[in-house]
């Protein structure tokens, strides 16, 4: 990943991709004082760009640091990153972290840095291929209580158990893992939220100890506009047998149907298809319509 050609926006200037480096004694590396975003540009425009930038700044505040750039400056920087790298359909990764002035647990005197990279990360599958669904394994790790860790932030520290869960699932031949929370309720996958469909009713776990994804919020709105009812509530894993379809949502995952979670089987069908189509239409730039 570090050996590509291209340009990375780094603290206000462009650095060649291979030179965008930090010191090994960076606080963010040792103590996870780091927050990031995952965004997608479609047709040259980042979908819900401002929401992502606002979440980035909010995540930093949750970790008790201020990113030294405004929403407008970050918006402009993201546009510049796409232009400088000639990208139209791309994944965009802003990351902010505490620097290397001091290395011990307290970090208030360390500079906060911001970098923004972007690269091509297509949705590889056709709708037909997607509708086969992916297989998920139950993770042995539980999403922690919001009293244990600030779980509404998109912060590096929250991803340690995601990596452990996803690597274990992939080693066992699954595409991803589904995590329960500290109470035993169904929570989310390692980088995406989860939804269940029965007829025209959609149920999704209440995001009270995991990320309330921007795609999740978009999907809830789209589902309602497409005639589904949407219920957010705590869900026990045993309940999953009553649902016909299941799908994940996330910036990278978009809408990804699921065929299996442990012993529970789902058959992606009209519900998933309707929502995949609605999401694809929604993410397209609205320039033409606005003109
Ligand atoms: N949960 C986790 C753990 C994630 O990493 C992501 C991806 N950012 C999501 C949910 C979905 O969030 P979004 O729809 O904002 O990409």
SSE sequence, one letter per element: EEHEEEHHEEHEHEEEEHEEEEHH
What is the 3D form?
globular
Give the CATH class of the largest domain: Alpha Beta
Largest sheet properties: 9 strands, mixed
CATH topology heading of the largest domain: D-amino Acid Aminotransferase, Chain A, domain 2
How many angstroms does the end-to-end distance come to?
A: 39 Å
Helix fraction by DSSP (H/I, runs of at least 4): 25-40%
Taken together, the total number of domains comes to: 2
Family: Belongs to the class-IV pyridoxal-phosphate-dependent aminotransferase family.
Protein name: Branched-chain-amino-acid aminotransferase
EC number: 2.6.1.42
Enzyme class: transferase
Q: What is shown here, in short?
A:
With 291 residues, this protein is of the alpha+beta class.
Structural features, described:
With about 290 residues, this protein is of the alpha+beta class. The protein has two domains: about 5-120, Aminotransferase class 4, branched-chain amino acid transferase, N-terminal domain (D-amino Acid Aminotransferase, Chain A, domain 1); about 125-285, D-amino Acid Aminotransferase, subunit A, domain 2 (D-amino Acid Aminotransferase, Chain A, domain 2), CATH 3.20.10.10. Helix content is about 25%, strand content about 30%. The chain is built from eight helices and 16 strands. Strands 8, 9, 10, 11, 12, 13, 14, 15 and 16 form a nine-stranded mixed β-sheet that branches. Helix 6 crosses helix 7. The chain starts with 6 loop residues before the first strand and ends with a helix. The chain binds 4'-deoxy-4'-aminopyridoxal-5'-phosphate (PMP). One of its GO terms (biological process) is L-valine biosynthetic process. It is an enzyme of class 2 (transferase). This is Branched-chain-amino-acid aminotransferase.
